[in-house]
Specification:
CATH superfamily of the largest domain: Histidine kinase-like ATPase, C-terminal domain
CATH topology of the largest domain: Heat Shock Protein 90
Number of strands: 11
Strand content: 15-25%
Radius of gyration: 59 Å
CATH class of the largest domain: Alpha Beta
Helix content: 55-70%
CATH architecture of the largest domain: 2-Layer Sandwich
Structural class: alpha+beta
Number of domains: 3
Low-confidence stretches: none
């Protein structure tokens, strides 16, 4: 409707401009024609009258001629006739408002016509025609007429033009408004509804607009677009179904891979202690052994059973379902507790644990028991790495860092609490770094690690909303950074 209204306004505005130009031009033209007609009428009256007065002057004398001029005023009330002397000292002279050359032109026998616009109301037209009697110019006839009737005629013409303009505008408004609604507003509303239907996904409902105009062409193009979009939509649905099927198959394959990895890891880790237990049990069952051998074999069986129990416990930790019991604690206190627990082991392995940078004010809302497990796992791994070099140092630091969370779609830089553990071990190559957090992956010799410590630690940190970063260069040690969101960021 707004487009129809605008078109109607432009249409009516154009008509108003055309009618205004036409009215002004017509009034000016008719005014000029009216004045020309008045001049011709004056000449038509004055010239015969000048001849008659000249004959009367010659036949009956000057007084009779003057009386004849006075009596001529009775013929028309709108027109006034007056005798004008051509001599400057005469009683009846040319009006002082007349053009300067009017007297000279009359003296030469020429008629003079001029308009006095300074008079009240509409002004007057003056016409002078010389009178020649007895072979000489004796005077002139002045005919004057008011433009009052001309003004009335112009006003009447203006009223007629205004009435005609109003009538044309009314007709044009009705026609333009009706045409706009019929040929513009309704088709546009149909096109808008079609566009909304396409936006809702209703692509196969055609829009029919009758006629051979631009909007009908647009409707046909929108129908073609809807058909093409419907084809693409069907294709996308089929591709999405195929993609989902492929994803399900990949997930199934991934589950099988995980199950295979877990089975292989369990078989590898449990195979050795089970074989030892089996062999020692057979020795005890069928062999003749001394009491000392019985005690030693029983101790070996007990050690291997504890090893199996530890492997199963770590596996259960990896698949734990226990909910978090968080509280706001200082990360420095957790590091102190973990370092104290592992101090004897560190001394045995000739490894020193140093505080490179500890900010006691850095706190996080965590499960202390689970985070202690993360700290001890990372410290044990660092000790084992340093032990390969015959000892070394472990530097622990706690600080606030600026990071963008890996799963943050807005890529917003935020402040996190960071626990960094760096060792002076042999380092980790790039290929091994990609598999560090996979279950049962380990760089340690057979029998010295289950490959679940880092996996369990990574799962704990992920549940807390954080992540673990690894930086290492072979031969220069490794650095593990536990990044945790602070309480106000969680």
């Amino acid at each position: 409707m707004r487009l129809s209204f605008k078109i109607t306004l432009f249409f009516i505005g154009g008509i108003c401009l055309v009618m205004a130009w036409y009215g002004l031009e017509r009034i000016e033209r008719e005014t000029a024609l009216f004045e020309d007609q008045m001049r011709r009428d004056h000449y038509a009256i004055a010239q015969p009258l000048a001849v008659i007065i000249a004959r009367a002057w010659e036949d009956f004398g000057e007084d009779f001629a003057h009386q004849l001029v006075e009596n001529s005023n009775d013929a028309d009330e709108r027109t006034r006739i007056r005798w004008v002397s051509v001599h400057r000292d005469g009683v009846e002279r040319i009006r002082p408002e007349a053009p300067d050359d009017a007297g000279a032109r009359l003296a030469q026998g020429m008629a003079v016509s001029w308009i006095d616009r300074d008079q009240i109301r509409a002004g007057r037209l003056y016409t002078y025609v010389p009178v020649v009697a007895e072979g000489s110019r004796i005077g002139a006839i002045e005919i004057s007429e008011s433009f009052e009737h001309e003004r009335e005629y112009v006003e009447a013409s203006k009223r007629r033009i205004l009435q005609t303009t109003v009538l044309i505008l009314m007709i044009a408004t009705v026609v333009a408004w009706g045409t706009g609604i019929l040929f513009i507003a309704r088709p546009v509303e149909a096109l808008v509804e079609k566009a909304r239907a396409i936006g809702r996904g209703e692509l196969k409902t055609p829009l029919e607009l009758k006629g051979q105009h631009e909007l009908s062409y647009l409707a046909r193009e929108m129908n073609l677009m809807g058909e093409e979009l419907a084809k693409i939509q069907d294709q996308l649905h089929s591709e999405s179904a195929a993609r989902l099927k492929a994803m399900r198959e990949l997930r199934h394959a991934d589950r099988l891979k995980t199950v295979g990895t877990l089975a292989a890891g369990i078989a590898h880790e449990l195979g050795t202690p089970l074989n030892v237990i089996s062999m020692r049990a057979e020795i005890l069952q069928y062999g003749e052994v001394s009491p000392e051998e019985v005690h030693r074999n029983a101790g070996i069986i007990a050690d291997q059973s504890e090893r199996i129990t530890a492997i199963i416990r770590q596996l259960m930790d990896f698949a734990r379902t226990r909910p978090l019991r968080t509280e706001e604690v200082s990360l420095a206190s957790l590091v102190d507790e973990g370092s104290a627990l592992l101090a004897p082991l560190a001394a045995k392995k000739n490894v020193t644990i140093e505080a490179a940078e500890i900010d006691d004010e850095v706190r996080a809302d965590v499960d202390p028991d689970q985070l202690i497990q993360v700290v001890t796992n990372l410290l044990v791994n660092a000790m084992q790495a340093c032990e390969e070099n015959g000892g070394g140092r472990i530097m622990v630091s706690i600080s606030l860092v600026e990071r963008i969370a890996p799963d943050d779609e807005r890529q917003e830089l935020r402040t996190f609490a960071a626990l960094e553990i760096a060792d002076t071990g042999p380092g980790i190559d790039e290929e091994a770094q990609e598999k560090l957090f996979e279950p049962f992956f380990t760089t340690k010799p057979v029998g010295e690690g289950t490959g679940l410590g880092l996996s369990v630690s990574y799962g704990i940190v992920t549940e807390h909303g954080g992540w673990i970063e690894v930086e290492s260069t072979p031969g220069e040690g490794a650095t593990f950074t536990v990044v945790l969101p602070r309480k106000e960021e969680q």
